[in-house]
Amino acid sequence: xxxxxxxxxxxxxxxxxxxxxxxxxxxxxxxxxxxxxxxxxxxxxxxxxxxxxxxxxxxxxxxxxxxxxxxxxxxxxxxxxxxxxxxxxxxxxxxxxxxxxxxxxxxxxxxxxxxxxxxxxxxxxxxxx
Length: 129
Prior knowledge:
Largest sheet: none
Number of helices: 4
């Protein structure tokens, strides 16, 4: 078995899209807006739950909610460039980001994002898949 030559690209993400400076700015703005909306929803729900606290167990229910939401947000909001088309596809499908917020990304990135959003919609609409 021969070893790769020095000129051969052995980077595992050879098909990873490159992001221009302007695309990085667009992506950061859309990502931050989605995260801000998500956190506003969490704050709103937290305030509603806090108003309903009557028993000590209610405090732990609120704590559990916040812990689970934080874990979910940490898993979902992945700003690695290698993951962004997947992240935005999911966000678009879930309504966390709007298509117009992604304007300015290259056609291939937009196509990948839209395709993933459509695929997720298709599979969520198909029972048993």
